């Protein structure tokens, strides 16, 4: 059985004007013509027997829909950890409010990773594992709002660096910036994306600034993978490695939305 975001090698078994039938790990799937590279470039059109790398876009369709576009494969890789996170730590049954992502990204001056947007759409802002607060856009309290915290943290960090605190070496390249996406309210640690020019949002990694000191910790994973590892207890981050001693087991796998906490 195929699942959404699954990546596999496929073989074209039949071709039609609207797309190609493929064999994906023993399961029949369909690739619309616009999801084959030939639709966008001079790549040869699909032919029976062709082999290519593809990703499952919609496993619920009959037959499942797949794509061989590099952008879809990259985004699927980023989304791969959102489903396990939702199974381990279920989102609120009511879901979250819709977000006008185009307006948010315009305000930030950058697109945002697909996995972060998926998490916010499922959970909204709130607390994971009793300790890690997810920022989300659209909250009246600036402490928990993505856009407000981006501006505030940029100002705070610039003041610290101008006062002589050492910048993390990861910011040595021209044009690199930090965008916050979460924090540990108790310890004060802030979690950022490391945003590099020319690097797609799905390839951004996490960098943490400790709350009561000048140290930084880079973890080369997406925010969804970081969250999943914290909740699951498999994180390599020094700052979240002792949650078993700090967080009640019942809170470890429960997400608490902003509305429940801040009210």
Structure description:
The chain has 263 residues and is of the alpha+beta class. It contains nine helices and twelve strands. Helix 2 (82-88) packs parallel to helix 6. The protein starts with 6 loop residues before the first strand and ends with a helix. The mean pLDDT is 92.
Q: Report the major sheet.
A: 7 strands, antiparallel
Estimated share of beta-strand residues: 15-25%
CATH class wording of the largest domain? Alpha Beta
Number of strands: 12
Distance between the termini: 43 Å
Q: What is the CATH architecture term of the largest domain?
A: 3-Layer(aba) Sandwich
How many individual domains?
A: 2
Total helical segments: 9
Q: Strand order across the biggest sheet?
A: 11-10-9-8-7-6-12
Sketch the topology as an H/E string, one letter per element. Answer: EEEEEHHHHEEHEEEEHHHEH
Structural class: alpha+beta
Unreliable stretches, pLDDT < 50, 5 or more residues? none
CATH topology of the largest domain: the name is SMI1/KNR4-like
Layout: helices, strands, pairs:
Layout: E1 7-16, E2 19-24, E3 27-32, E4 51-58, E5 65-67, H1 70-79, H2 82-88, H3 101-108, H4 114-123, E6 126-128, E7 132-134, H5 146-162, E8 177-184, E9 190-195, E10 205-209, E11 216-219, H6 223-232, H7 243-246, H8 249-252, E12 256-257, H9 258-262
Antiparallel strand pairs: 1-2, 1-4, 2-3, 4-5, 6-7, 6-12, 7-8, 8-9, 9-10, 10-11
Helix pairs in contact: 2-6
